[in-house]
Amino acid sequence: MAQKKVFICDDDKGITDMLEMVLELEDVDTITETDSIYAYDKMIEFKPDILIVDLWMPVVTGDQLIKKIRASEELKHIFIICISASRDGLQVANEAGANTFIAKPFDVDEFLTTVENAVISAA
Length: 123
Known about the structure:
It comes from Sphingobacterium corticibacter. By secondary structure, the protein is of the alpha/beta class. Helices cover about 45% and strands about 20% of the residues.
């Protein structure tokens, strides 16, 4: 089976670095973007199987990005994991079209289980 591609978009470089490091333990190819303005175009180029996206980012918010992806013929199949510290994050993520939601701060084991399930779902 081909290696799954995971795209991580969060405006906090500490989060993208940590998630990338955690995912090195999994059999996935990761790419990160901290500026959500570039995320969509990079995703068109990279064609990820899974997107991990923060909700609250400057300029293009996570829910705007999710809606744009869901409207795209090329990207709408992507399994989207939304992460956020927002109290209404789950509702916003669901309304935007995310597959699943993880509240920040999250447990690394819970995160890995979610990604592993996403890899299976994206198969």
